[in-house]
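debug: dumping io for the single-chain case to check the tokenizer round-trip. Nothing else runs in this session.
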Amino acid sequence: MKRVWEGLGLNSQLKEIFGSVLSTIGTIEAALGSTPQIPINQQLKIDLRLQGNILQATGEALSADGQGTYSLELIGDEVQAVGNSLVVTGILFDPNKDLNQRIIITGNWLQALGSFVALSDEFFDLTPSGRSLNIVGGFLQGIGNSMQAKGGIETLRDKSSESGEALGFYGSWIQAIGSVLSLIGQMKEELQEIALHINE
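debug: decoded output
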């Protein structure tokens, strides 16, 4: 069966779909960890953010690996994977320390950059199905990550900053919504490409 899939050239499409699924689960998990209203202990929230970013990094790496050719989307996925890895590093080595907060902020900025770079590729994509969802989803993810980075900067300046925590919270959920939209768009795009391969 694997040879049949490879013969149809479908491995790359499946990698991109699976990568998008992992990224979406990861963004939702990280958003839950950034939600102050959820009545769970602080360590569990940190664990949710950690696991969420690991899933995102893995998903982005899979999506990048699934790209057939060198493109802005591939570069964007790689930059996002690096950004998530930096966030993971900052969380692992105590997210309350200033240096690690700076690492997390840098990771969020890189995720935002990667989202906008990957988004720009959609304007040149020859597969129309899911394009508008991918554009809106990528834009929301970039905005969400930028808000998280800005919230991190405010918290770094003032540990008791409520606006910093609020920016992180809203940014996380905006990113999660964008990720869900991108997942739907990606599935539509890849399923159309799979249909084209099968009909060839």
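debug: round-trip ok. Residues 162-199 form the longest helix (38 residues).
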